[in-house]
């Protein structure tokens, strides 16, 4: 039901048409069985007449079946397409801090595992719907043959469905538990790929991680998956057994209690035998539908969390080309508000002007990167406010405010293309910066695409700086940019690149530990455990 509701939300009219044609197909298929049953006990002349009806019903059943499959398949895959885009929009519109609280592992698992599960399962829904229409049509024919026999059959089928529902509900619990463990598995896989050097260099850490983290989570996932398979296997076996029992009752037991003519009995046996295949297909789809239902629940849960915190987004930005001043008044941000040990940055008062170089310094964990995210508008202050040219930055204009900044954070991401840069002679300008950053011998840029990004971390940071140059925004923020540069280019960065930006009227905010270059800035903001202190 949850999957059908998911489809109805996409295009209820198309689903309704598909359901109607599928129902017609099921009714025609049931009518074909009735026609065959009648033909068995008919004369030769009657059989010739029934043959024309057989051709007509078979043609209608084929065409309506094909139409229903096409319409439902189209809606199904369009629904998954729209779901993926909607999730991506929600993530992009969600505040950065809330995304960090949700966790990368959960978001990646939802975008990959959950959407893939729904995509793989949703393709089977058209066939399931047609099978259901066929089953209902056959049940109507059984009732028409004999309501007494239908009542016995309906009681047996109801018992089977209730039993299958109980087993499916138990399996659903294990599916939910297995899905939760998958989030932890993604976290461990992230540890393997990002912490491989540390794991290789410390055998005890390696063994402890594998034995105390990875194996335990993998074993829990395996246990829950096996329990699901066992329960669904039992469901499938029980379903087949009950249908065999129904046939046995009809052939051997029921005639002893109530008189049945050969036409009714043969019709029932023929229909029950014919229904075995669609019923088995429906039972075989139950595990996939249950997994897809769990996946859809996870997506809905994540979607509600993301949508509830969604920021205002406009495709028509009013990007400021310059500014007179940016003032931070009493801003603060707290991590771990609901925990005993929390960290608070602020309150901080700060004013920024065009054409100055400001170094943000302090020890590890002092709040430098948090302050950078607050200044750029990536974090929303828990208290205080930011003013751009005496106008407060709020939800209405925060997106516009962010366009003032070009950044290279410590954990920056480098795109393979120069996205969002509609510049004349883009490749020529980019090539000039490649020479300036001493990368022209390492790579080329053609049609706005880097020939490679498989470079050292320091060289990748230079490409990120190249992108920032091309954006040409009023404020540049660098988070430990020079940390991965060789001594020669570190010197160039502080003594040439930063002064050049200042000369162009740009404001430069640089988080740095390079105290030997502190004389090249206009101001120093020193942080100590979330508070601004005077530099020594």
Task: Please tell me about this protein's structure.
The structure is a single chain. With 536 residues, this protein is α/β, with parallel strands linked by helices. Helices cover 64% and strands 11% of the residues. The chain has helices at 2-10, 12-40, 44-93, 96-102, 104-122, 125-145, 147-194, 196-201, 203-253, 262-307, 368-375, 398-402, 426-436, 457-471, 487-503, and strands at 326-335, 343-352, 357-362, 383-388, 391-392, 405-408, 445-446, 449-450, 475-479, 507-511, 523-528, 531-533. It has a six-stranded mixed β-sheet, sandwiched between helices. A four-stranded antiparallel β-sheet has the order 2-1-4-5, with helices on one face. A two-stranded antiparallel ribbon has the order 7-8. Helix 3 (44-93) packs antiparallel against helix 6 and helix 13 crosses helix 14 (457-471). The chain is elongated, with a radius of gyration of 34 Å. 31% of the residues are buried. The model has no long low-confidence stretch (mean pLDDT 82).
Give the structure's gist in a few sentences.
This protein has 536 residues and is of the alpha/beta class.
What characteristics describe this protein?
single chain; 536 residues; alpha/beta; six-stranded mixed sheet; four-stranded antiparallel sheet; 12 strands; elongated
Strand order of the largest sheet: 6-9-10-3-11-12
Order of helices and strands: HHHHHHHHHHEEEHEEHEHEEHEHEEE
Q: How confident overall, as mean pLDDT?
A: 82
Estimate percent helicity. 55-70%
Q: Note poorly predicted spans.
A: none
Count the E strands: 12
How far apart are the first and last residues' alpha carbons, in Å? 67 Å
- What would you call the shape? elongated
Structural class by helix and strand composition: alpha/beta
Rg (C-alpha, Å): 34 Å
How much of the residues is beta strand, in percent?
A: 5-15%
Largest sheet descriptor: 6 strands, mixed
Count of runs of 4 or more consecutive helical residues: 15
